[in-house]
């Protein structure tokens, strides 16, 4: 057992979180994460309407009686969704934990906390993490440059960003980006985090609803096979390396505008990757940690393995280093 401020305050067994992932955060995966003693998030905007979100929450409750949450990601969009209506669906469904990512969480945090809902905000900088704390969130997930999706524009890796955030925040900190196993969990705790938030690793589990071909590609990929798109637009995103993402980077480098890449990066095309297994149908998120992933376990196997590995590292390997006598050669 690894007990932290986060596990105590959020009522979960293990300091491991499955963050929101578009087209992925559905009932089967979220319930499996919850049943394994970790914290899973339904991705609100994966559901076509707020009523569909209500139904997905109800479906998840049929699969688990343990805590889970809903992710609400607020990002620039060609057609902005009705965020307030999704927020009301979360409240109406009796969800007790929400993960907000993207824009300033203040407008949503106030409404959610009125209903006793704990709020986690995903931030990519210490500045934004402090702002989130100021507006009343209960925990911050700090996203290092290694992460899938949006790592921010400052390119600070987790080895620096995690302790920098933990040093100044008073609320629990989750380390996100580059974590896929017990070594990453132990390292995050050593850096001052109270838990870890993983996306790519949970993407590649048996309960993940994406096409098996995508999971096999993650296993086959190394840490070198991602692309950073939208760099010239000030909205950097890390996605898997494929024909489409390389084309997007090429257009951006040639001075192209968003209009020139809009069709290539559409969510409709990205969804086809996950549903049909066509790896070049569109862009799809993947973090550098895919280079550490070499199997497709059940969620329970993954969580149990991570906790056991982290515990072994903390209680044995590191303890032995401290206790090891200095040899005569090194004295």
TrEMBL record:
GO MF annotation terms: monooxygenase activity
Short name of any one Pfam family annotated for the protein: NMO
Origin superkingdom: Bacteria
Keywords: Flavoprotein, FMN, Monooxygenase, Oxidoreductase
Gene3D superfamilies the record matches: Aldolase class I
Protein name: Nitronate monooxygenase
């Amino acid at each position: 057992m690894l007990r932290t401020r986060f596990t105590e305050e959020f009522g979960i067994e293990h300091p491991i979180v499955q963050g929101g992932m578009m087209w992925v955060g559905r009932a089967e995966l979220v319930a499996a994460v919850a049943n394994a003693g970790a914290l899973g998030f339904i991705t609100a905007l994966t559901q076509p309407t707020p009523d569909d979100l209500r139904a997905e929450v109800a479906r998840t409750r049929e699969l688990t009686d343990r805590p889970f949450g809903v992710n609400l990601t607020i990002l620039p969009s060609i057609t902005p969704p009705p965020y307030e209506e999704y927020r009301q669906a979360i409240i109406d469904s009796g969800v007790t934990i929400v993960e907000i990512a993207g824009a300033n969480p203040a407008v949503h945090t106030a409404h959610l906390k009125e209903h006793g809902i704990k709020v986690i905000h995903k931030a990519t900088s210490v500045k934004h993490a402090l702002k989130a704390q100021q507006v009343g969130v209960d925990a911050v997930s700090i996203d290092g440059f290694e992460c899938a999706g949006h790592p921010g524009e400052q390119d600070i890796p987790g080895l620096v960003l995690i302790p920098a955030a933990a040093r100044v925040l008073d609320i629990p900190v989750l380390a996100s980006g580059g974590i896929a196993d017990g070594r990453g969990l132990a390292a995050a705790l050593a850096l001052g985090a109270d838990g870890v938030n993983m996306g790519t690793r949970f993407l590649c589990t048996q309960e993940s609803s994406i096409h098996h071909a995508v999971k096999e590609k993650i296993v086959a990929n190394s840490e070198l096979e991602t692309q950073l798109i939208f760099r010239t637009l000030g909205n950097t995103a890390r996605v898997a390396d494929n024909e489409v993402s390389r084309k997007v980077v090429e257009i951006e480098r040639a001075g192209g505008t968003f209009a020139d890449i809009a069709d290539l990066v559409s969510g409709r095309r990205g969804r086809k990757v996950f549903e049909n297994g066509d790896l070049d149908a569109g862009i799809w998120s993947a973090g550098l940690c895919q280079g550490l992933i070499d199997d497709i376990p059940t969620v329970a196997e993954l969580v149990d393995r991570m906790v056991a590995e982290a515990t072994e590292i903390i209680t044995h390997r590191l303890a032995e280093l401290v206790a090891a006598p200095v040899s005569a050669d090194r004295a």
